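Lecture 7 notes: from sequence to structure.
We start with the chain below.
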Amino acid sequence: MTGDGSSKISIREIVLKGTIIALIVTIPSLSTFVLIWILLDDLFLGVILGAFVHFIAMGFSLKISKKILVKK
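Predicted C-alpha cells for the same chain:
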C-alpha cells in the first residue's frame, strides 16, 4: 500500500500543531469574554459574545487544521 517513501506525522508534530490550533480557537474567545466583562461590566454579555466568537473560530479551525496538518 504505502512505499518506503511515505511521510508520516510524528506524535511530537501532532501535539505541537494541535496545540497551535487550540490556541487559535481559544485565545480570541477568552479575550473577547474578558474584554467585554471588564469594559462593560456585564458577565452574561461577555459569556454570550465569547461563545459566539468561539464557534466562529471553531468554524475556521477545520480549514486551518487542513493546511497545518498536511505533510508535504
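Points to note: The radius of gyration is 17 Å. The helical segments are 11-40, 43-69.
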